[in-house]
Input
Amino acid sequence: KQHALKSLPTLPESGRILDEWSNRLVQGRVADALLLDVIETLQAVPNLTYKPAVEKWQAKFASGDVVNRNRASLHGGDAERGRALFTGHSVAQCIRCHKVRGEGGDAGPDLTDVVKRNPEKTREHLLESMLRPDVKIAAGFGSVSVTLDSGRVVAGTLKAEDASSITIRTSEGREVSIRKEQIDEHSSPQSAMPSMERALSARELRDLIEYLMSVK
Output
């Protein structure tokens, strides 16, 4: 169906079929796996014929969170294309920071079996992590900066924290344990990962999510 939808705008006398898909979109009767395809198909029709229908659908989620606004990317992706994006996208460079099946960097969490190991990491969580990486930072990967009461500043990755101390790994790879009573200022953890909102298209996000959901 995805391939058939893509060809609709170029087919003669396809208006009735496009009208039906437009109505189904507005009424919320499009399967999740076809949402993005239907939207892109309607947007590809000349003269902006179906622009009002697409905008009406988008308006339902305009005031929602980033996942709702991009929900068309949650389902229907191609895992093989997603794997190619993960290993070879020149801007996103996922594999530079994330490891899958032993290959890749370690600046970010290992994504092998990420969904199996963490059942709470749903498609929605993966999408949010790509678009708003600061919202939920994996333990041991948040960047922080602390100013001690002596005036010394220690910056790096927050590796551990308990009631009395924190441990920071500096950019030189050295782990520094600091008692909380020594800390004058402490920044909130930030993700070193940039948002993929401008780096990846809606279709690329969808394929990448499908790949990560399939990694075992």
Q: What stands out?
A: The chain has three domains: 2-60, 76-135+198-214, 142-190. Strands lie at 99-100, 103-104, 142-148, 153-161, 165-169, 175-179, 183-186, 190-191.
